[in-house]
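USER:
Class, as today's exercise, take the chain set out below, and explain how the chain folds.
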Amino acid sequence: MTLLVPAMVLTVGIHELASEELESGVVRVGYGMLRFAMLAVGIAAAVNVAHFASAVPQVTATPLPFPVVLVIVGVGGLALVACLQGPRRDTLAIVAAVLVAYAAQELSKRVVGEHGAPMLSAFALGTVAYLHANATGRSVPVMMVPGLLQLAPGFLGTESVLRLLGQGGSPHETDTFFRVTVIAVQLATGLLVAGLLFRRREVTPAAAAPAETVRTPSRPPSG
């Protein structure tokens, strides 16, 4: 639900903002934030019910090796082919978009830190998506949407809900809904810059036609 419900709404809204569709993009991003609030209500109800059950044992998570994570992310990309109802010929592009987005996010975090990673990751994803579209003639969202699902702050929004409810994280951490909004703006900015640099420019017939030379008619001879 975290990946396919709130993050998907934010993904489409971010893509619309980057495509200069401001009205629908702002409304959709706002609706995505509302979905997080609805998620908070459901989690709060579950927490209250869990108080009547036995305590859940605390488990410390151990990070998996990066190559293993890439394989798991690639399998998730195959699942997105079915979830997004993509054609078989775009399977490789969808899986590649997921891997590019995840790898760019992890590498950019190590280089510039977590706050600068979303914009750089979105720029890398947008660059690959536009170059793929220019080279193959396929639509840009073929790679844009699956990759954005890896970058959209769906998990961050859910984590913020848990922290607001006091169910996880350190009290000194500041992952709030405001940060989710900031990350969404960074993603839109990265995609917008990639579009300005690599989007194929459509040439109008008037611009494509050669300029006609205007000749001044010669004066007829007098007398």
About this structure: The longest helix spans residues 22-50. Residues 169-174, 203-216 have pLDDT under 50 and may be disordered. The radius of gyration is 24 Å.
